[in-house]
């Protein structure tokens, strides 16, 4: 039983990695907010209690999250129903558009909306002035502007969970109700809605927590609307720097998020689905009758201006030689911004190099280490294997900002602090669960009998690993790699806190350029991100289709 | 209780014709089984009767009531047909207790609470689920969920009960037990049943009549005996039970006999075809052949090629003038491969060939 010992060594090493990169930082965050100079003083919490502005920020965060969540439900649920349960034409187009906001980083969405509705440079206000108006008619820098941009991104959580729930309902459950004498609406009330409700609630909770933990959109839009939330306050405390207060605020954010995430798991766990796989029947689809083309047109009329046009405007703006210039004059358009960003400006060039390096190393390490963890969890009987699974999933459910702050506390006294290496470690820990998930999914598909068949054929366990497990696991590893590469390439929240001042990432560079008012370069760099993200998304679709696995 | 009449029913999905112009009459109180291989259109036919599918053309009557007639723009929705239905995967609602599942059709009909209670109690007794009212489906076995589905379909005392492969998810032993129970319940309630299955033993055991379907068409309607003994064509003969299709040189039909001349020149006497056809085949069931060690009366010579002992019977593959014939005899006596035998055919029938 030689290999069992190897398994245990590997398990211990993996656990050590997870403790250093995940458990230790989080423990330090809590420790430092409680203990000063070796005694439990609760200084941070005392400061927090005496902080008169704190209730305002908590109230703001919750108010924003509540309103955005409600809007997310109002948008996501009917849209999911239309796409899954009606004979709506052009479903593929609607489905693609519906998830498009999700492929861009949130700050890109914010910047796109700024190009639409900024009082000075927003395209709507430019047109208004070109038509003879004065000043502006729309202003994105308001509470409702913030709500708009956030809702248009975070509804996707509710939409996706509802779509998958609706698709999973066995249509015969609804048909049985109809055979029992219930008309369509009654079927919806008695059968469909009760069965979908846990998923809607779970999606809404995810959206709520995501709004609370988001930094990019409130930083770019909320601050200028003088609407401050916990994440943006934590960021400004770091620049003072007031680490104690940042820690206390982070813990407050944790106190809001963790119970909701636990609740979310509970709600999903409560679904008493009895899944008996009968033969697949086509889901019962409601006919919209003659209204179907009208509904399709209405959806497009909402989705094109809110989802396509902001991104298009962002790209157009990137070609303007001067943001203040006349956008209706062809002479005002140039490729110069791209040239500057890619070849001249030191900050943006460094940022691109840094982000590519970081994303490559994070994606590779997560894909490989994730596969290792998944293998231990799924294929070995080691007692402590579930600890690995659990620990690796923690950083992703926490708000990114909180996790980044905990990295500061853990490594501030080490040479790693203020280096890109620390950013890499943070990316690795934060996105590790992607790698573990995709590989776990791939490994679960490998029935134990496939390995047993190889053993019986005369292969030892190493040979089985090489000939059977790894080839089948490859798809999971590749999917995990891309799933990590894309978001880390344009990551903002973690890097804005951890990246050294002179070594920004793409996300940080864009944020800084925006703050400095260097709009031309902001938009050029943002356009590059948009193009990379879209190309990456196409790649993901191709690869997941080829390997026949679902990415998320 | 009521009869069901299907007239010239056609159902297309896009370009695929699932049901191709079928006529079928199910009598009041009859147990009718739609039997056929998967994809033959039996489930689609059933779903048209239920109202879950809108036919492309044709008419469906429940008693005198016309419920589907696309040509006249008539389509009574399923909830207004008063039909009970049991689905293949039970479709028991996971978020409701056994009681709530079974009471649901009565709640929809706004019956008084007391009556709902007593009727649910009665029907749960009928399906032997007394005492499980407050369980949730996930606490029940597959067989129990099946009974819940049956109770729910029966509780509103529907005119017709439709069952869509209700036993296919149960294990073999339970399946056999449920066959008799469903049949017994049908006899006691006296309800008209349309039952869909691809399992011939199930169809034989339960049905008053069977409609054998293939490729969207009904091949034959008849009692289990007729279907087995007087198959209307080669598809039915091949689908139900085991059958030897015997090649022959010539055929002479008289009023109540058919004389078949084999390639070897030997002649056997068979039952004449049920229906006329352009081409015929001769069908002999393996169990209708007796093996003799000496020639005696009308018999044909063969040599045993292969012997398989199956317990209750012995399965022989016998070479008869170059063609292989399968014979099943009681296992009381076992002959050896290579032995010369004489086959006495107790019953054979000439039937029209379908391609």
Any descriptors?
heterodimer, A: 552 residues, mainly alpha, two-stranded antiparallel sheet, 23 helices, B: 355 residues, alpha+beta, 6-stranded mixed β-sheet, 5-stranded antiparallel β-sheet, 8 helices, 22 strands
Q: Which descriptor suits the 3D outline of chain A?
A: globular
Question: What fraction strand of chain A?
Answer: under 5%
Largest sheet of chain B: 6 strands, mixed
**Average pLDDT taken over every residue of chain B:** 91
- Sketch the topology of chain A as an H/E string, one letter per element: HEEHHHHHHHHHHHHHHHHHHHHHH
Radius of gyration of chain A, taken over Cα atoms and rounded to an integer in Å: 25 Å
Which structural category fits the helices and strands of chain B? alpha+beta
Described by strand count, sense and barrel closure, the largest sheet of chain A is: 2 strands, antiparallel
Q: Shape of chain B, please?
A: elongated
Distance between termini of chain A? Answer: 37 Å
**What's the helix count of chain B?**
8
Straight-line N-to-C gap of chain B: 39 Å
Strand content of chain B: 35-45%
Rounded to the nearest angstrom, the radius of gyration of chain B is: 24 Å
List the SSEs and their pairings:
The complex is a heterodimer of chains A (552) and B (355).
Chain A: H1 2-34, E1 35-36, E2 39-40, H2 43-50, H3 54-85, H4 91-103, H5 106-117, H6 123-130, H7 143-168, H8 171-179, H9 184-213, H10 216-222, H11 230-239, H12 243-269, H13 291-318, H14 336-344, H15 346-379, H16 385-397, H17 400-411, H18 420-444, H19 448-456, H20 461-489, H21 493-498, H22 506-516, H23 519-547
Antiparallel strand pairs in A: 1-2
Chain B: E1 4-13, E2 16-26, E3 31-35, H1 42-50, E4 57-62, E5 65-69, E6 74-75, E7 83-86, H2 98-108, H3 113-126, H4 142-154, E8 160-164, H5 172-189, E9 192-197, H6 200-206, E10 209-214, E11 217-222, H7 224-229, H8 234-239, E12 244-246, E13 250-253, E14 258-261, E15 267-270, E16 280-284, E17 289-292, E18 300-309, E19 313-320, E20 323-330, E21 340-345, E22 349-352
Parallel strand pairs in B: 3-9, 3-10, 7-8, 8-9
Antiparallel strand pairs in B: 1-2, 1-4, 4-5, 5-6, 10-11, 12-16, 13-14, 14-15, 16-22, 17-21, 18-19, 18-21, 19-20
Helix pairs in contact in B: 2-3, 2-4, 3-4
